[in-house]
Write a structure and sequence with these properties.
Elements: H1 8-21, E1 30-34, H2 38-49, E2 53-59, H3 64-73, E3 76-80, H4 91-105, E4 111-113, H5 120-137, E5 144-147, H6 153-165, E6 170-176, H7 181-187, E7 217-221, H8 223-237, H9 243-259, E8 265-266, H10 283-288
Parallel strand pairs: 1-2, 1-4, 2-3, 5-6, 5-8, 6-7
Amino acid sequence: MNPGGSVKDRAALGILNDAIKNKKLKKNGIIVEGTAGNTGISLTQLGNSIGCKTIIVMPETQSNEKKQLLEILGAELILVPAVPYKNPNNYVKYSKKLSEDLSIKEKNKTVLWANQFDNSSNLNAHFNSTGPEIWEQTCGKVDGFICAIGSGGTIAGVAKYLKKKNPKIQIGLSDPYGSALYNYFKTNEMKSEGNSITEGIGQGRITKNLENFKPDHSFRIADEPAITELQNLLKYEGLYLGGSSAINLLGAVELAKQMGKGHTICTILCDSGQRYESKIWNKEFLKKKKLPIPEWLI
């Protein structure tokens, strides 16, 4: 329930505060970022509040809701093909090149490439806020934490803090199909299998945020049970969420099975279902992907 509607507000705030502190970003400056959407939304709202322009580079496959919101917020939105990181036209690499070109062109303005994937300000934001909040709000009785990896900042920052407080706390990775991290942490092979409709999570490389991170447990979650869980959360819990939240929650269930009864396990409900109404909450999309359709949408 952060102002920008997702957990990415925490990373964005940490990145911008550090950039301002280090004089890499000043008022009337330009913020550039490659993002699946939520980090861009967070950076744009925060950028607006400090008088900075935001340019967001996003894969064209992301939901229309994210694209529309970015434009409403005033970001300059550049859509690129969804290609692997090794491709120079990958959205992250494209945003880096754009920021470098703007730095030369806009000599009277500061240009910040937020670089959420390899900027340790992301990890530190969760070390300084999310981790302590979990510790305090569970009165130090948390036994496990689990979530998916996009940039790696949330899981690495929270894990670093919680392990510092109690090394026995178990950290889990909840990985969608199409991501290579499940295999990497299980077999040390960066190999992806299958695919997923989830947005903003899954990774095919070790980002800077992940360099010193290793989970105690890794689980791979398929789309079909995740979509079913998502629909159950709305029907029985009144929680209207995005797909990555379901991947996280099913991972928490798997970690609970692994650890046994009587343990307190935390995860992240990343964003709202409103960001995906044209996709995972759309019966035509679900039908096309051969995924379960909730009874009330049939």
